[in-house]
């Protein structure tokens, strides 16, 4: 646990729930952070009990205004549903049907906002990062899994459920292309482009594949085709690519080139045709988009209820 | 020109601009229509001059509150752009860079709202049709072309530009599949599934292909794959399928089945898994979604400026 100055002030809590760890932060924005902790993801009650203990301990020295949560899903985000704020059916052992919002509500009386990890990251970048000048953006993470979130008309993207951009089906140029690893779809973005997919297809994890390995041309082609369909569906003003796999040097440029090749001059906007390097960008908040996004969700629900 | 009762009242104008005709309507909603006309699409000034003459003639007997336009594009819909409301680069001869909003503004001093034909149709169905109970929907038309519009958070979907769902790239199951006809992309939705694509691929126009022709299995597969990617990107609460090709008996049911097969139980929501027949639906306003959508756009801009 890191400790910082600013005791006795008012803060928000941001909780980023991931498959291996929960990152919690007490902050008002990326410039004003009070405390942070990393809690390993075990079973849901044990994990959330530690999250709650951390917040209660922190609130001895500071006032907590609201809590924001961005977590892995799928989630029920229908405010009219009896299971609103619950993780629905997930492959993560023990977490299916866990009521994460309910668990936090029994411990705290402040406003609590819940969204997907990627919608939170999108909202963090929209509020304080690479999407500050926009009204709409997509945040796509390529790592252990592939997931996408969005901001449209200034709000996180929800509908029937929430986006599941990792499972976009991808057309491949060659008939003898590798098999994807998704148990649901044999040719989806996550099944081809996630870290585990790279390892399964090419025999080595992404970090061990040299920069000039053909895996990266394939990876860039698959991600670009997914982005092309996202651009044609939503027309976001900015696309932010995060996640561990995206840290590979050269990959982002390959993706930008492949997006231009695939669109083939169809979408005529100077943001794409003339300055794609500022249209498809890395997260300005680096690895912190998700947890500061959760802080932004907390801030939004706090101000909407005043 | 059809004439109806209700003279001396206040009305909105809805203009649906298409490649072969402009449908204009003087109405407040589908229950309260004053006058309507169909003007052939020739060159832009001649066409709009006729539209303007119709509105001026109608306004002798009634008061026009605002005008809504839903037109073919692509359009510049960036309110901060100097060419806002202009048709940009189009294959429709003579219409590239035509300032449709500017032309109407020189003739009328009432508020004028411009959007794509498919966003207007989506807004019409959202306001008075199949999407009245929703907060988000997608309207896809399959006819001479394929186009998609959307309502998200209650507003027509804009971003960098507007959706171009007709050009979603589609993965095909078989390597010896037919070639699409899109000049930009060799495997996009419009290139495979539009009326002209059906004729090019199967040798006959859609109306001459029997219900049990393999063309319809292919058509349903292509459209379902496009819809799957739309569902995974936006997660709309309702999908409305309009356009001439969709009138083929049996096609809608085939598409619903193919969406379920392609999603393969991944998106767990009862609207999809248990009642897809009320999730993917025909337009409740029939062929009138676009022009009443334009009326709804007029109503929206009128009320937002009061």
Sum up the structure in keywords.
homodimer, 306 residues, six-stranded mixed β-sheet, 33% helix
What this model shows, in words?
The structure is a homodimer of 306-residue chains. Chain A is an alpha/beta fold and 306 residues long. Chain A contains nine helices and eleven strands. Chain A has a six-stranded mixed sheet, with helices on both faces. A five-stranded mixed sheet of chain A has the order 9-8-7-10-11, sandwiched between helices. The first copy, chain A, starts with a strand and ends with a helix. The model of chain A has no long low-confidence stretch (mean pLDDT 93). At the A-B interface, helix 6 of A face helix 6 of B.
Q: What kind of sheet is the major sheet of chain A?
A: 6 strands, mixed
The low-pLDDT segments of chain A are none
Indicate the mean pLDDT of chain A: 93
The strands making up the biggest β-sheet of chain A line up spatially as 1-4-3-2-5-6
First CA to last CA of chain A: what distance?
A: 32 Å
The strand count of chain A comes to: 11
Percentage of residues in strands of chain A = 15-25%
Tally of contiguous helical segments of chain A: 9
Structural class of the helix and strand makeup of chain A?
Answer: alpha/beta
Dominant shape of chain A? globular
Secondary-structure element order of chain A, N to C:
EEEEHEHEHEEEHHHEHHEH
Helix content of chain A: 25-40%
Output the radius of gyration of chain A: 19 Å
Most extensive protein-chain contact, per-chain counts? A-B, 48 and 49 residues
Note the quaternary state here: homodimer
């Amino acid at each position: 646990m890191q400790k910082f100055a600013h005791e006795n002030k008012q803060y928000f809590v941001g909780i980023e729930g991931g498959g291996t760890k929960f990152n919690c932060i007490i902050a008002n924005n990326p410039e004003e952070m009070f405390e942070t902790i990393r809690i390993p993801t075990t079973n849901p009650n044990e994990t959330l009990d530690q999250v709650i203990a951390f917040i209660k301990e922190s609130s001895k020295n500071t006032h907590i205004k609201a809590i924001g949560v961005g977590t892995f899903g799928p989630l029920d985000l229908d405010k009219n549903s009896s299971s609103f704020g619950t993780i629905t059916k997930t492959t993560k052992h023990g977490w299916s049907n866990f009521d994460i919002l309910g668990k936090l509500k029994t411990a705290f009386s402040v406003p609590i906002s819940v969204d997907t990890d990627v919608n939170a990251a999108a909202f963090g970048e929209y509020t304080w990062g690479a999407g500050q000048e926009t009204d709409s953006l997509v945040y796509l993470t390529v790592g252990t899994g592939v997931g996408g979130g969005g901001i449209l008309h200034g709000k996180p993207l929800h509908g029937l459920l929430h986006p599941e951009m990792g499972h976009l089906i991808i057309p491949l140029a060659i008939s003898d292309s590798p098999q994807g690893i998704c148990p649901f779809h044999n040719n989806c973005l996550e099944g081809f482009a996630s870290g585990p997919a790279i390892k399964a297809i090419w025999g080595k994890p992404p970090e061990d594949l040299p920069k000039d390995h053909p895996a990266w041309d394939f990876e860039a082609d698959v991600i670009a085709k997914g982005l092309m369909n996202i651009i044609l569906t939503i027309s976001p003003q900015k696309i932010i690519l995060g996640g561990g796999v995206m840290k590979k040097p050269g990959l982002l440029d390959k993706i930008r080139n492949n997006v231009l090749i695939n669109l083939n001059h169809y979408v005529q906007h100077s943001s794409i045709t003339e300055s794609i390097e500022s249209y498809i960008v890395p997260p300005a908040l680096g690895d912190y988009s998700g947890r500061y996004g959760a802080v932004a969700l907390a801030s939004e629900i706090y101000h909407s209820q005043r």
